[in-house]
Amino acid sequence: MATTTRHPALLDRDRAVLVVIDVQERYRSVLHDFERMLASVLRLVQGAAALGLPVLVTEQYPQGLGHTVPELLEHLPADTHRFEKMTLSCVGEPAFMDTLTRLGRQQVILSGLETHACVNQTAHDLLAAGQQVHLPRDATSARHAADVETAWEKMRGAGVIPGTSESVLLELVRTAEAPEFKTLQGLIR
User: Fold this and answer.
1) Domain 16-188 adopts which CATH fold?
2) Cβ distance 150 to 59 under 8 Å?
3) Positive or negative CA dihedral for 165, 170, 171, 172?
4) What's the predicted TM-score (pTM) here?
5) Could you state, in order of their start, the residue ranges of all structural domains in the chain?
6) Plot region of 157 (φ>0 → left; ψ -120 to 50 → alpha; else → beta)
7) How far apart are CA 47 and CA 173, in angstroms?
């Protein structure tokens, strides 16, 4: 494959990390379109595993909200970094930021819950910390659809780069000649 200069807003597997925010059991029955969101997050997790991307997973107050849903847990790579937090922004959890800094990745792909709360605050704080933030729209949700739309407007205005789980995976793989392409193709069908 010939080397070409790529736009800096395109994802690069050597610079990217996937963050899954608070996809916990208690949200299952109250979240707007939970199953759609979960399917998209699973697609991202499986794609990240195939591409060798680091994965960070958070749980907001698991004693009250339960743990990460089992469908997601069973697909997390063995080296997934997991964090409990009380702050809405993941950046407020020192171990999260220490790990992100140690990984040395500058592109953060956010997914999870809730769009207007933890995802929104994390996105803004990561931007303030100098990270490039990518947000696949289909991999986030909230209890109310109106909260999702308002959060999207705010985050896009702040500089978040929108996408979908499929567009993220295709940017990361770059070419149908990549050995992982067939695996990713199976995930996006």
Assistant:
1) Rossmann fold (3.40.50)
2) no
3) positive
4) 0.96
5) 16-188
6) alpha
7) 9
Rounded to a whole number of angstroms, the CA Rg of the chain reads 15
Kindly tell me the sign of the dihedral angle through the C-alpha atoms of 75, 81, 86, 91: negative
In terms of Cβ atoms closer than 10 Å to its own Cβ (0-12, 13-18, 19+), residue 106 is middle
Alpha-carbon separation of residue 149 from 6, 31, 144 (angstroms): 30, 15, 9
Counts for the chain of helices (H) and strands (E), in that order: 8, 7
Two tokens at 111? Answer: 């997914």
> Which two structure tokens, joined as six digits, stand for 161?
């780069």
Condensed to tens digits (0 to 9), the pLDDT of residues 103-137 reads 999 999 999 999 999 999 999 999 999 999 999 99
- Sequence length of the chain is 189
Q: Where are the beta strands (DSSP E) in the chain?
A: 16-21, 55-60, 81-85, 107-113, 132-136, 140-141, 161-163
